[in-house]
Amino acid sequence: MRLTVLTLFPMPNVDDVGAHLAVQDVVWVGGGSVANLLAVWRVHGLDVLLRRAWEAGVVLCGVSAGSICWHVGGTTDSFGPDLRAVTDGLGLLPYGNGVHHDSEPGRRPLLHRLVAEGTLPVCYATDDGAGLLYRGTSLVEAVADRPGAQAYRVQRGPDGAAVETPLRTRLLG
Questions:
Q1: Marked catalytic residue, from 64, 78, 101, 112
Q2: Does domain 24-171 have CATH number 3.40.50.880?
Q3: pLDDT score for 138
């Protein structure tokens, strides 16, 4: 395995970003500001290039902002200390994404409100240490790297309230 790094500051570190992404097996994106990440990617055309890579079979993954970005949106602190909705993710996955579900107290109630009011569609949420595996746009399984880390499905119930359902989460290794 050979690790490569794509940087965009102060300028892209490769001549052809699309060709660089196309030959990767996995693209891993860390945390940070999902709003800034998406804005910079769009300026450089990575929204289109990442979609092409994904459609060609490149595995896209990440944590926190690096997880939300693949979905239609989620909860973020990208705009300041108060959590808000982000609704302009890349949309490769047609769901909302709730990260830090167990470790940041404001995220769970905000995600529930956003789903209940229809700002976000059905969402998948994860505690720290849990992850979601999709094939195409279908959720295959939830996994965890530590005991107790859990994943959830959050959807709007018939009464208009958000309903959170724990998912079977497989402990890795």
A1: 64
A2: yes
A3: 98
